[in-house]
Amino acid sequence: xxxxxxxxxxxxxxxxxxxxxxxxxxxxxxxxxxxxxxxxxxxxxxxxxxxxxxxxxxxxxxxxxxxxxxxxxxxxxxxxxxxxxxxxxxxxxxxxxxxxxxxxxxxxxxxxxxxxxxxxxxxxxxxxxxxxxxxxxxxxxxxxxxxxxxxxxxxxxxxxxxxxxxxxxxxxxxxxxxxxxxxxxxxxxxxxxxxxxxxxxxxxxxxxxxxxxxxxxxxxxxxxxxxxxxxxxxxxxxxxxxxxxxxxxxxxxxxxxxxxxxxxxxxxxxxxxxxxxxxxxxxxxxxxxxxxxxxxxxxxxxxxxxxxxxxxxxxxxxxxxxxxxxxxxxxxxxxxxxxxxxxxxxxxxxxxxxxxxxxxxxx
Length: 363
Description:
Order of helices and strands: HEHEHEHEHEHEHEEEEHHHHHEE
Number of helices: 12
Shape: globular
Radius of gyration: 20 Å
Oligomer: single chain
Distance between the termini: 21 Å
Largest sheet: 6 strands, parallel
């Protein structure tokens, strides 16, 4: 759920969001329409979660965010924030509603140079101020870090920073060219591999954080070896359509990063709008309504046929498959993605087919 497009007060240089400087606010009617479909799902699944992201949720304001959350019954709520707007009142809001908090921060101050404010100042201190308030109120939080330079010599200091913060889970994303971020440099494969190896070493020596990427590897190994109960492997799990609801009610399946962009062949990538059709209907009819999903599945099949790592990643089932899902299209037909102001973003070549139909959450 995208409650607003604003990323106030941040303007990170690697951000992929096309509307982050605009003040688009999700109407309550959109949240009500989504809740009408998902409340029955949540009633049958106590782990059902509504995630608020795709902008800075706290920039929505407490009153409006409360109104957006209100129609949902039985769902857990989580949000991803830059923490700059966190104050005591927000902490009380989060505690009262038992909202899971994820904070976006890239490590120690010298590793946060890409996280800047709209005024051009470094955002590390305002984010840390918000984190300290979360900690003072006893609010647990996870973290997502973007690593622009995967230097193996920095891995230990990077991990220790988050261990000292006391984060529950850490997700690590190596910066890539995506959305309106066209300045990312391709990471050196050897250097990136050494970074992950060093990060795994320091985690193994002090496993106080659930490190998302390592946990995925361990889950996969456990499932393959049958050594312990584990989550299904990507190739055996039911396919998750992962619908993203944009501020205006538009629904994009599989990849939040496509929200707000258009393509010469596929239009705005949406399957429909919840103000016109129920989310449950859009999920069930996604493939009939969304022409680019066919090429997505073709890319998955190409991965399965050619990549020895397919059993682990399942064709990079979310963002990566979609953003690369054009390999089967002739190069002279490969379009440039644009956001809705027709500003060029990136070329994306296809990789990905269909192993399972899209299905709604368990009922």
